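Q: What would this complex look like in 3D?
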Amino acid sequence: MNAILIRGGRVVDPAQGIDRVDDVLLRDGRVAAIGPADGRTGDRDVETIDATGLVVTPGLFDMHVHLREPGREEDETIETGTRAALAGGFTSVACIPNTEPPIDTQAAVEFIRQKAARADTCNVFVVGCVSRNREGKELAEIGRLVEAGAVAFSDDGAPVYDAELMRRALEYCRMFDRPILAHEEVLELSRGGVMHEGLVSLVLGLTGMPAAAEEVMIGRDIALAEVTGGRVHVMHVSTAAGVALIRAAKARGARVTAEACPHHFTLTDEGLRGFDSNHKMSPPLRTAADVEGILAGIADGTIDCIATDHAPHAPEKKMLEFDRAPFGILGLETAVGLSVTRLVQPGLIGWPRLVEAMSTLPARILGVDRGTLRPGAVADVTLIDPDLEWRVDVRSFRSKSVNSPFDGWVLKGRAVATIVAGRVKYRLGQ
Amino acid sequence: MNAAPFEPQRIPSGWRHRHLLDLERLSADEIRLLLDTAARFKEATDCCRRKLSVLTGSTVVNLFFENSTRTRTSFALAARRLGADVVDFSTSTSSLSKGESFIDTARNLEAMGIDAVVVRHGTPGTPHLLAQHLDVGVVNAGDGPHEHPTQGLLDIFSIRERLGDLSGVTVGLVGDIAHSRTARSNIWGLLKLGARVILCGPPTLVSDRWREIGVEVSHDLDAIVPRCDVLNLLRIQFERQNMRPFPSVREYAHLYAMTSDRLKRARGDLLILAPGPINRGVEMTADVADCRQSLILDQVTNGLAVRMGVLWLTCGPRDHGRQGRGAEPAGPPAGGA
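A: Here is my prediction, written as structure tokens for the whole assembly.
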């Protein structure tokens, strides 16, 4: 069988301005047509999927995922992480290079691509290091990494601390038209910190990471983007003032894009009161006012994308004393549910904006030919049941780790089928 | 207070906790019950000098991950005064240096049939984590800068012994509030009992945010001294500071040390507490430490009484249901969105 007909779903493809109930025909791994399929239903080689009541979107794209391989296979592997992605409705992920060793050579990029090909799950796009060995001292061989297939550059996990190095990286990447994905943190201000600095950290006696630690660095990188003409993509924006800085920069025409994570628009530092290390991540959960700021940024487009910063950690690591437990939270398998529940259900944004944030724009920012159902495009498609209520159960996760504070939450909206290059790679309940 | 002879047969029904993790989540009644229990033990042991046998057969483990002499000794003496066996477990002799996690270490101790763990740790929330994983009582003997509930209780106990009811009493906590677990336990206990709390120190050690929970914040010791019934002088915790929060010790002492000059401007019956160990010449001058209003040595004796009360409430016999493992919520339940 080499064709799939998705019948009667609400097709949402912002790249083409489409939002209507229609049929989508996939053939030979490509989108063949969008339009009423009356004449084609009899074809013997066509598998039909009834999508009545479902939302049919270009395959979802998470541009911020830590797959942990190579080096930390006890937390996640390329195979388990990409299976988690499929179960979450993602047909593509971009993997961040803070592995051991870091992805700073052609051989390392090739390793990821081979492992991903062998897993035969979703698309894995590789992000390379900005600096050699992720040390923040000198540029990695960015041109060679681009040749090997790297789509963007990041030292995430840590900021590119040296302002001069960041400036050179932005200038250098211009000739490849690749963005720098920036983790924004002034380390002196967040030193020893394990959570947001505010009333809750004060009461708990935990060392805080002030919002200013993130905002000062966002400000620096916006200035460097403007002076170099390079592209900065601000990762995991967590503060309202950070959103405001990006909004102002965009208004001036700076080449700045940004992402926010579902946990940052859902949870606050109040969740730390039980000392549950599943609430520990960087940047940290902040205040209700910051959540409001991020929601507003998503609604008005200041925040381009939703990305998860999927950061698995094996249970024995998270069970340590709070300051020894690592930063990080799972994201892939709860992103759709949280986004639908927090953004679409309350009417903050519509489906076209959600699809734009989770598919169209991540693909566009990374310069990858995905994120649309235009005829001829690769047939990556996600089918979402917008009304399905389900209970999060970390034991059922495909991920190798279980560090999610959302265990037991009831969410609305879930991917029910994930199709990669015309092949159904995931169906809910199978 | 009830004048009947003290016969601790059963834990009072007003105490339903398995652990003593912090004062923030106790009610005023529960704090009063703890203080009353301590008072009865103080009386029954002739000011903590005589031995009882109410916990004979129980074993208490002192699990200290941070150096401590005073608190550990106080807990050990309190347990022995009640007839319990005490095992000291310190990190230098433990398998933690071999890479074992502290939860595994505690589980090993639990498997040896103990009744309570008294834990001190440099990280906030560690006693709470232990309470979720162990089936024995956990007493917090200080978790980083978070809380030190028995210290808070003994400070309040010492004030109450002199002044009676705390409602309307003004207590100034002076010094390194940022890094002080003693300050946090005092704040919660005092607020719940109706006292007025003033925090005083430089803005780098005393955040204005504290006002959000109903305490007063001042950066001017001279302005608050005349208004206070009690001053609790907290130690500067140089060891917990990333960067020194004031230019010099000399400058700090000039602004915030309690001196005999400042004492002259205070009420004549001002009480002075210090959780110790004190840095003489930094938090207070020597003459203040030894003045007649100083309760510093009372605090040490009362520490024994409070810890006897706490250990008994943790290990003693009870005939009403108590919560099992993990049942004591460590925080608000995560709500669904």
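A: To summarize the key features: Residues 28-146+300-315 of chain B form a domain with the Rossmann fold fold (CATH 3.40.50.1370). Strands of chain B lie at 59-64, 85-90, 116-121, 137-143, 170-174, 196-200, 216-218, 230-233, 271-273.
Q: Very helpful, thank you.
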